[in-house]
Amino acid sequence: MKRFRYRALVDFDQPAAGGPGRRYPSGTRGFMVHARRIGEPSGHKYFPATIVLDDQQPPQPGEHVVVTITVTDADARSYLAPGQPFTIWGESTGRGVISRLLLTDPGPG
To answer: Which CATH number fits domain 3-105: 2.40.160.20, 3.20.20.330, 3.40.50.300, 2.40.30.10?
Structure first.
């Protein structure tokens, strides 16, 4: 599977009740990214993703933050591209828009 990294601007909602959610030792957070298929509004997909905040401080609800999103899925380019809106599900919810593709690499395996 290929790994795709994107830069995005995200507006996080209030954190979900019950704790901080899944966090990795690097400070990365685990989320699901939901996006519509490019050029086909009826198609959509959920992608497991990791998100790294540029600022190490947790975002405040309603604050726009720049993040790096990593998705490992061969279909990612059909759903995520510059200007494409998406929603986030995880320790908090939110909405965002992809600004650019940073990296495509073969990934593990």
So the answer is: 2.40.30.10
From the list 10, 3, 5, the residue with the least C-alpha distance to 97 is 10
Three-class secondary structure of residue 78 per DSSP: helix
* Rounded distance between C-alpha atoms, residue 28 and residue 15, angstroms: 16
Enter the pTM of the model. Answer: 0.79
Which tokens hold the place of 70?
């990593």
Tell me how far the alpha carbon of residue 43 is from its chain's centroid. Answer: 18
Stronger pLDDT, 53 or 33, i.e. the higher one: 33
